[in-house]
Amino acid sequence: MNVGNGWVKQAPQDLSGSLFAVYTKGQATLKIQSLISGATVINRQVFYHHSTSTVFGDGTGNPTGAIDFSKSPLLPGQTIGFANYTNYSKGLNGIVIDVSDQIGTPTATDFQFSTWDGVTSAGFFLTAAAPSITVIPGGGAAGSQRVKIEFADNLIRNTWLRVTMLANSSTNLTANAVFYFGNAVGDVNEGNSGSPVTVQTNEADAKAIRRKLSTGIDSAAVTNVYDLNKDGRVNAIDISLAIQNQTSRSICYFTATVSLRSTLTPTLLSAPASGLTVFRFASGVPGTGIVLN
Asked: What residues does each domain of the chain span?
């Protein structure tokens, strides 16, 4: 939960058998009790849909072999980097979200997908690209529920994608889950510079791939950044893809800000014998009873 600027999260406290999140700002202490149970996003990964490697698989079913664990989502407040974007030649076409607890049957309407290259001043805009959504019960990390998102090849390409999984009865989330992944076809993180960093596929990328050529079928792991088309090998096709994409539009690093919740008006409840002041928000608001010392 984000409670606003200046508040520092402390260790949780157990008060009369209920667990409270604790935040401090100066001499003030804020304690928040979760009143609503629900699902939580515990994992987010990209996978390479429609890869041609016999080892990775093509992404059908549960795409465990095609997941690139060297890539990680950019979360609000984190520092952006090479680990947050892929260079797959078919763009960003596969994402899995693992959710604890039971969920309903989410569809594309339970998500918001927005794109931005990080260059223009316009910022993120909702994309018209509609993915397919599949729930794989027990298919996620530690037996969690896996939500598989598949975009058509090349629809999300050379751009950043902001994914918002909405909190509603279909997802069973108590708060929207927001994260980012990007794609820059052919870029292997050679020669990128600037402030903020500009990611542009260039001659240095093609030369780096040439130095990493492999010969055996499926000799390149799914995490190999030089295998641009994910066919399990690094060869002349990958060099050609890097050269072809030297004229592609660039993307820039950006700051993933932490969004604040809308202002909500709580109801003051009777203070318990401990002398704490207790507030409660209206039913259905994820969040909570609030206790102020």
From this structure: 8-33+263-292, 41-252
